[in-house]
Amino acid sequence: MSDFRIAADIVAADNDRRAAALDADYRALGEKLARGGVDIGAITDKVSEFFVAVPSWGVGTGGTRFARFPGQGEPRHIFDKLDDCGVIQQLTRATPTVSLHIPWDKADPKELKAKAETLGLGFDAMNSNTFSDGADQAHSYKFGSLSHVDAATRAQAVEHNIECIELGAALGSKALTVWVGDGSNFPGQTNFTKSFERYLAAMAEIYKALPEDWRLFSEHKMYEPAFYSTVVQDWGTNFLIAQTLGPKAQCLVDLGHHAPNTNIEMIVARLIQFGKLGGFHFNDSKYGDDDLDAGSIEPYRLFLVFNELVDAEYRGVTGFHPAHMIDQSHNVTDPIESLISSANEIRRAYAQALLVDRAALAGYQDGNDALMATETLKRAYRTDVEPILAEARRRAGGAIDPVATYRVSGYRAKVSAERPAVKGGSGGIV
Amino acid sequence: MSDFRIAADIVAADNDRRAAALDADYRALGEKLARGGVDIGAITDKVSEFFVAVPSWGVGTGGTRFARFPGQGEPRHIFDKLDDCGVIQQLTRATPTVSLHIPWDKADPKELKAKAETLGLGFDAMNSNTFSDGADQAHSYKFGSLSHVDAATRAQAVEHNIECIELGAALGSKALTVWVGDGSNFPGQTNFTKSFERYLAAMAEIYKALPEDWRLFSEHKMYEPAFYSTVVQDWGTNFLIAQTLGPKAQCLVDLGHHAPNTNIEMIVARLIQFGKLGGFHFNDSKYGDDDLDAGSIEPYRLFLVFNELVDAEYRGVTGFHPAHMIDQSHNVTDPIESLISSANEIRRAYAQALLVDRAALAGYQDGNDALMATETLKRAYRTDVEPILAEARRRAGGAIDPVATYRVSGYRAKVSAERPAVKGGSGGIV
Amino acid sequence: MSDFRIAADIVAADNDRRAAALDADYRALGEKLARGGVDIGAITDKVSEFFVAVPSWGVGTGGTRFARFPGQGEPRHIFDKLDDCGVIQQLTRATPTVSLHIPWDKADPKELKAKAETLGLGFDAMNSNTFSDGADQAHSYKFGSLSHVDAATRAQAVEHNIECIELGAALGSKALTVWVGDGSNFPGQTNFTKSFERYLAAMAEIYKALPEDWRLFSEHKMYEPAFYSTVVQDWGTNFLIAQTLGPKAQCLVDLGHHAPNTNIEMIVARLIQFGKLGGFHFNDSKYGDDDLDAGSIEPYRLFLVFNELVDAEYRGVTGFHPAHMIDQSHNVTDPIESLISSANEIRRAYAQALLVDRAALAGYQDGNDALMATETLKRAYRTDVEPILAEARRRAGGAIDPVATYRVSGYRAKVSAERPAVKGGSGGIV
Amino acid sequence: MSDFRIAADIVAADNDRRAAALDADYRALGEKLARGGVDIGAITDKVSEFFVAVPSWGVGTGGTRFARFPGQGEPRHIFDKLDDCGVIQQLTRATPTVSLHIPWDKADPKELKAKAETLGLGFDAMNSNTFSDGADQAHSYKFGSLSHVDAATRAQAVEHNIECIELGAALGSKALTVWVGDGSNFPGQTNFTKSFERYLAAMAEIYKALPEDWRLFSEHKMYEPAFYSTVVQDWGTNFLIAQTLGPKAQCLVDLGHHAPNTNIEMIVARLIQFGKLGGFHFNDSKYGDDDLDAGSIEPYRLFLVFNELVDAEYRGVTGFHPAHMIDQSHNVTDPIESLISSANEIRRAYAQALLVDRAALAGYQDGNDALMATETLKRAYRTDVEPILAEARRRAGGAIDPVATYRVSGYRAKVSAERPAVKGGSGGIV
Asked: Which positions are tagged coiled coil (chains A, B, C, D) (predicted)?
């Protein structure tokens, strides 16, 4: 296996060029925050300890049902993917773990652990796949998986999820994320109640196979690939699942899986209140499950989600430790650059949320002073916290401007020399 | 008090003119259904026993924030409204009960009962109002009611709801519907968690005041009058309320209170499955809470909702007895005509759902035969069941064509002579 | 080439079994319509002359970005596809033409014409593809085609469209449909104005290559595959294109390409009024471009679209001759069955629209009698016109119940014996 | 008439307290921008010359169809409203003009001009009202105004618009904004084509009455108060209007009048490209026409709109001079505070858009470097430009922190002493 890591001196050299400007900006911001009674050092420390997992499937170029247009140096397998994830972590210091997707990332756990350790990486939640058929699969998921009318198909899907747990346990993962596309395209195609009963029974079997210290995340989604109904269609159904299964079961919130106009931050608040927020799949969207880069379309919405998370920390909610994961499809950018940028955007929203004056906010809320309450959020949000993010990266050994450093490093060209070119796929599906 | 009831001979005369055509259509439909093994008489009987409550506020002309354009003979008070409701019931025989809205309909319960009995009417669920301020109200609901930050305001709202229960108990009602507009217009204006805690605590007090055989319906709504967040924003939150309060608490589903593209029939199925479907506010909508006439925009959606209700009956779900109520705003029609028509549309959807061949449907579902499953629904849906509806009305003493009979009767002109004209309101609100 | 046509005696035998019931239903409906002054024979004649084109890509099983689950006997190439289209036409007599998609359906035009003639088929609008990359393509469409920043890429896309015209001319087609996925996934990725200028210039070159009696249809779509902006995003932009290009350019309306809650029938009316309605891609949708079977989700919406078309006929709009085409993705059904069913649904909406009493409707509209106006539409809509559709099919030599006859015929099993099985595709794209 | 202007020394005193912090922040930002080659002084100058009109109806507390909860010191008439507008301008120096709404603001033009001059105010576009009925109105707008089936009603609406032009001409206004709520609540209620023909004919009469140097703005809106169809429902129809009428007719874009998920900035670009962007009604929305404060829900969207405006300036588009107007409903805040804050948010988006490095952006666009293109926008957007906005206000004689100064001034209490309290309205409309 080649080692494609970016040489430390490349990072150092690029940082050197940017150090003076960062110092000036960090100092100016520090003085401004100090005037408001905020210690920039404390914020920087908190940001340094905030991490988000990278999805293994995110480092390859994504696509739509119409086509996929691969880039150069596409990763061939999980070991290539881990190399790419290693670079993201090296430059951002915000992404020390990787989320695997089985069966695509199936490999000898010892080799996986060894490779990850070389790169300074660990493993986050495992992801099963029962939304497409594998080459040698006995039962097709065309008409569903965990909710399928056929018991053998459901058993196969349960078995696959248990296999994911076992591999994850060998890797040090502590959670399984279950997303199924089960649903229907026609009114009447499925019986809503019976489908959900079958889903719950199958999930109960998976739940039984969970190690003591694991969590089970169920993920809801309004539609796609099913276009009339989806078994786990919204957070209401997702909550019923987590409640029915037990304390280790919690809900995963993907920011792009909601109906138009939905107030997502409110769903986050409700799940926190009832002890069922498991974590996030971060991304952004304008229309549906667009899987765009986090914060690229509605950055204020991302901030408002983090405002709830920081508020829960502030209130000391017991048992509150949501998993932070990215889930994006990078169709027109270098996936490594998008993941670097997205990890930064997520930290940015966190840093801005940390700047909210929560005592003042509570006062305005209690006084029904809507204008000053919202202005309190806006003041935090419009603070340009980039110096804090850059400083946190620099202190941890990362890059001040990680995308720029990545480009300077020539990483993509280097891996392209080793990884064969892939032809564009004509989806053939319209 | 005048008696404006339509003379029986007017109904009889209009029915006579239509009897031959109805006989022919009923016979032809009966023969066609018999070929499929369905007894038209049994369906007609079931339809005859299906009722939906009329909202007292529905017989006056509605409006928007921009304007209200009253019609002729607007009801002046609850007794005028009961007269109008009496006519609807007289002609449709589908609406034997009225839902009151307090404080607008507040009156001596004895007088209310007496008037209703004269008209052959009873009382359905009571509706409280804490979304606008009364003239002599101590605390304003500008910033909320049951979830208000101020304890005295919450207490006032609780008190009002208890008063509604008491009046309802005197009238023979068995349920209280609580809809609040509480929410916020700005991010940060309210704390989602604290607001909901306050709401739940206030509702618990109302719950305690419920008579043994009453139910408490909470109603969710995505937005309006609050435009950023709403305390009871969706069925997920609504379920949490009903579960937290106890067995007498159930969820009310208004067909226009959901996010765009929402699969409402699936929400209905989930609430049935978890024992929390309290009932409906029927209407139709294209954009938001448009409060249009039931079945006027998406009649197939109304059918799909009834498909779930009839399926629950068919499966013999225990404790299943949802309340059927209309909640509409009639801005451009004679409200009596819209309510007659809507009651018929709701019965139509019920009749069509009764025609679904459920054994065949289950077979197609078990065989993943999506095309024939959906065709099974469509076959029932496209049956023109108007002869069944008309026959059910005729047999019960109503009108074969109730809107036509209503027009012939001259009712609107008669009440207009007694009820003074109302000038159009310039909302002044843009 | 095999001949898989269904034997005439199979159709005849199945029709025989159903003749008596159809006769009875047709007679009963005829009597009912006659009472309202409508001649069922005239309606049946009009329905018999209404046709809709089948898309060549529709006879193969479709999929999503997550997976594709092929069925048995998937067509291997355009000649297999034509066989399948032939069966649809044989049984429905509603689909005498096929719409080709290039490059997938590229073949010797003489062979195509000969095969089509054997099957009694002709060719409707040609469809170009510049949303995915072909194997031997010089310039990638990853970042656009007709609006690409690079002139050579645009020229290649123009050239491809001209090639489609040339092939179509040889086949007797009279129109080219251009849909491009060009757009962006990030704010700032493209300059809206420059992109549209490039698109217009490229389309002008294609327009110049049109034969005298051809039309050019541009198709708008809100989003997908681009998730932030799309060059031809709505009917407003589509109208600007058609107006800029000239009289042979018109707009194509796909029922699934609009924003949530859009009033599509109104867009149809506007395009008719301004002489720019080119035609339709019929399908149905609940969320986005779901490409579900026509009339399967909102049948009343389909009726309302046809209400506009029949109204334009009724008013004698000059130059009004929209193209009727289906564009669907059949993921969970036998595509042949879905296309048979969809062609029937489209004819159903047409037949129902023909039943609207337009003189009465105009009277209600002029009198602001909203209730009776909408009831006039509803009366036509709720007429079960299946006997008319079946009779039209029977008279033209088709099947009374075409899906049933298709199943009896064993067509799918027969082609499956010849066409090799295809393995399910794991999209690999999340 | 009282003079409620805020004493200059109050402003000066509050500015003094904030001067040192502003100086420091302005200096630090200037240094940072200078590093990127941007002159903060030039940006400050441009911001100082950017103005937005205040709507007269915005200084009163708004409401919904459910209720209206007035605040203290509600303005009684246009002269009170002008006082309030004067304060907004005095503190922000961003709102030197007022947009009047007739008939509410009808008064002797000489008195209006005199009062405005005292306050340093001028008059922006006139707004007509044909969506509600006045007390002494001959023909009701219940079923429409400019598109009404009745010629006399249309003539009355035309006459009213001409009266608005005449009053505006006397006041120095240069534009008329026409928004009508005409539409329908039921399929079939109106004929789409005939309605639009009547609308166009009526607008043509208004157009003829325009003075030479005036513009006519038509405003589209998806829905409300009509809930099935609206005559001017989207920008496509709006464009057809402007094109049909002539060069003085242009389209007005209200940010809350679009379908869910619509890319509004793209519509802005299209209207600029085709010479038909008349101007804006700024506000923000999450669900429908929520009329929330500009920038309060999706501030990045507001920035992206301004990105198009600044880009048009940058490209030197001929005849480009859109009108900037606010149109909001302030239901839970002091309207003066919301308008101060909104004017600032609008200037903020303009200032951020000015910071976009357009040469770099064009380079990234030409190179299909989506990541850096969007990052170029984001860099400008995340700059905290508050010091520029504050400095622009200070230099022009306004307040560094205008909301704070307003609160210190005691203005609301002073006017409340003179203006009688208004009772909360129970809408009575559900």
From this structure: none
